[in-house]
Amino acid sequence: IDGSLPTFTCAETEKNLLEAAGIIRDTSETVAFPTETVYGLGGSALNDESVKNIYKAKNRPSDNPLITHISSLSQLNRVIYSDISDDCKPLSHVPEIYHPLVEKLWPGPLTILLSIPDGSNRNTLSKLTTANQPTFACRIPANPIARALIALSDTPIAAPSANASTRPSPTTAEHVFHDLNGRIPLILDGGKCSVGVESTVVDGLVTPPMLLRPGGFTYENILNIGGPLWKECLVETKVNIKDDEKVKTPGMKYRHYSPKAKVILLVPEGDSQIISSERLGRLKSLVDKEIIQQGAKKVAFLNSLHLNKHFIDGKCIHESLGTTGKEIQANLFALLRKVDEEDNVDLIVVEGTEANEEGLAIMNRLRKAASNNIINF
Ligand code: TXA
Ligand code: MG
Q1: What is the band of 276 on the pLDDT scale with cuts at 50, 70, 90?
Q2: Which of 60, 96, 121, 273 reaches 20 to 30 Å from 314, CA-CA?
Q3: Where does the chain hold its CATH 3.90.870.10 domain(s)?
Q4: What gap in Å lies between CA 186 and CA 275, rounded to an integer?
């Protein structure tokens, strides 16, 4: 976990990283950077002004707390908990329930809730980072550019996804540029994100523990790797929540992952391995009816496992999300953006998947993108 930093053989990469690290460390500006999940919009998690600038650039409601990204457990202990004692161990400030998860899944797309260090400490987290929650969310990303940026700035970095609020998360530097051009000083381009959906957020501080947001690691991963205490782990299932409703993870109540175009989600129910022609015919007529009702002029269809790419005939943009959960995750946001921003369709019909393994995170994002415009089949 405390492994050494990668060495960058490219002088340009090193120069850009040092410039970005300088912005994080010495100013209250923000920097977009790649992680293995999605691009983040980072600023110092210790500085109110930096965090305000993050919320402002994204146009994000400030009651939705941010994840604090660290490069190592020693940084967590030294900078966040101000613990430089000789007997401080790497996991001294991480409750035992998290140890199996953190030992196996960090660095990586896992975010855990930790208790906020008490205010007498010098380097305390900004209250704006945690949006007045009693806890803070923390992760060590696996992407070497992200970790180098955090380590070089020697600053825990608060970072939400680097999209404009309500839009699909960015998985390329171009997506960030599309949403935030002119609003932030710098984007580090690290190519396409390998995972494609955000980190899995878990809360081990409650009994039983909870999965607050499905993400890059599956619920099954958490159950299998977490040890006995995670066997009872509950899943926060609410997808659409009213504005004034109290929720454990405030991010859940906002419109999210929404393209400009309307999204209709097709959800397979029951046995989707064998889909009879009768079932397919029924679905086809429901979809056709919906397209007419919406008055859609340009339609895109994103298929996944069971429906043929040309399921919607006539003039329609067809894209395949992939045939495995990992592929679908990696392509999901990029394809929603492609048909919305490049093809300018006014209706996107998406084939969903079963809500297990990677499908849980995929369907969580798609249900929000579709804000309940769903056709079961
Ligand atoms: O993969 C990721 O997690 C990406 C990359 C950039 O690391 N970040 C990301 O951040 O997705 P964001 O802000 O878009 O989502 C953070 C989620 C939100 O749902 C928020 O409500 C929840 O984590 N969260 C943050 N702090 C929390 C806390 N103290 N208690 C409960 N939920 C929290
Ligand atoms: Mg986000």
Answers
A1: confident
A2: 273
A3: 11-253
A4: 49
Average pLDDT, the chain: 91
In tens, the pLDDT along 114-154 reads 999 876 655 589 999 999 888 999 999 999 999 999 999 99
Residue ranges, CATH 3.40.50.11030, the chain: 262-376
Pocket test for ligand 1, best of 80, 161, 163 (most atoms within 8 A of CB): 161
pTM (two decimals): 0.94
Longest Cα separation, the chain: 70
For the segment 255-263, the average pLDDT, to the nearest whole number, is 91
CA of 93 to the centre of ligand 1 (A): 20
Taking 90 as the threshold, does the pLDDT of residue 209 lie above it?
yes
Q: What is the Cα–Cα distance from 58 to 332, expressed in whole angstroms? A: 21
Pocket test for ligand 1, best of 33, 66, 180 (most atoms within 8 A of CB): 66
Q: How many angstroms separate the CA atoms of 369 and 314, rounded?
A: 24
Distances (CA, A) of 76 to 39, 73, 349: 22, 5, 44
Q: Return the CATH fold of 262-376.
A: Rossmann fold (3.40.50)
Q: Is the dihedral of CA 156, 28, 257, 146 positive or negative?
A: negative
Cβ–Cβ < 8 Å for 113, 251? no
Predicted ipTM of the assembly: 0.99
Is the confidence at residue 363, as pLDDT, over 80?
Answer: yes
Domain 11-253 architecture: Alpha-Beta Complex (3.90)
Which element (helix H / strand E) includes 31?
A: strand 31-33
Taking residues 317-341, report their average pLDDT.
97
**CA–CA distance, 177 with 372 (Å, rounded to integer):** 29
How far, in Å, is the centroid of ligand 2 from the Cα of 311? Answer: 31
Residue 249 annotated in ligand binding: no
